Structures are given as C-alpha cells and as structure tokens.
Amino acid sequence: MPPYPNYYAAARPSSSSSSSAVASCLVALLFLLLAAGGAAAALFLLYRPQAPAIAVTAVQLPAFATANGTVAFTFQQLASVRNPNRSPLAHYDSSLHVAYAGGEVGRMFIPAGQIAGGRTQYMATSFTVPAFAVSAASAQQPVTISVPASGPSPAVSAMVQHEQQQAMEVESLLRVKGKVTVLKVFTHHVEAAKVCRIGVSPADGRVLGFRC
C-alpha cells in the first residue's frame, strides 16, 4: 500500500510547471526593465539639460579718462543669453569681469532672474572701472580684430585691420550660472562663459572692435 492515497499523488504539482512559471516571471520582469530603461533614455534625450548660449552683441566705453599713465572708464556690454532647454533656466551668481594685461580691473554681479525655455534674454550691463596703470608698450601695438555688424543679432562679421592705430586691449568675461529643473523633479546646474578681447583707443576710449 502506498504511503498516501492516489488522489494526493495526482494533486501534487509537477516540477516542470513551476519552472515555466518562474521563467515567465523573469521574462516579464526583463521586459519591464527594458521598457523603463528605454523611457528613461528617451526622457533624458528630450529634456537633457544644456548650458545657456551667450553672444556678445555690443561693447561701449561711454566715459573715458586718462591721467599720469592711468585710465578709468565706464564699461557697457550688451549680450544675449539663450536658454536651449525646454524648462526655465533660473540664473544666479552671474557676473561680468574686465581684465587688462592678465589682471582683473573691474567686475559687476548680475541680478538673478529666469529665462523661459527656448527663449532669449538680453543682458545690458554698465559699471565703472577704477583707474589702473596702462603699459606704454601694449598701447603701441596694432591690433587685428573682428567687428560684429551693428544690431542686436549680428549675422556677419567684418575683419578690420588697424595698421597705424595705437590701441590697448582689454578682456571681458561674462559668466552665467544657473539651474534647470527637469520634469519638475530633477535639478541640474549649468554654467556658460564668454570671453571677448576688445581693442580700445587709449586717446579717447573709442572701441575699435572686439572678438569673442
């Protein structure tokens, strides 16, 4: 006589049925993981955070003074900042620096703000650069610079060579920092910078041209 009735033996699950169920669960889990990974990759490509694009469109020195081998001036710069992201860009801790002969001579911090997704914002900055000494040797050298066409959105540039014109060269550095919130959940910090070399007449402060 068997140790248990025959109907119990008929009710016992087979090992092949259990293996099939486990395999089906693994396949379903793998499919879900692949689908989630594909969705995450698509969202990343669609909403991938990008740094803002900066273009300097105008530079002026409306006030300029020289005395005893030093110069002082008011520095004005107009730049466009484009947010290439779909989400708004909240910028903060941004600044504009002016340097001469490798040393900083002035700076200005730009107020915080927000640029809508896919939009462009113009930043007009103006501040006074205190007097600093000018090297006589650097003011004697001719410069070759690229002068953007007039207007807020130049499309072409003209090369102008000042063969006999004395010029001093200063540099400007516009740095824009901010953050982009993707899908209202993930925050990503972005930063962009634009350096421009500016040729200035040491006699009257006229901007002879600039290139960035």
UniProtKB/TrEMBL annotation:
GO biological process: defense response to other organism
Keyword Membrane attributed: yes
Broad class of where this protein is predominantly found: membrane
Localisation per UniProt entry: Membrane
InterPro entries found in the cross-reference section: NDR1-like
Recorded GO CC terms: plasma membrane
Keywords, in A-Z order: Membrane
Protein name: Late embryogenesis abundant protein LEA-2 subgroup domain-containing protein
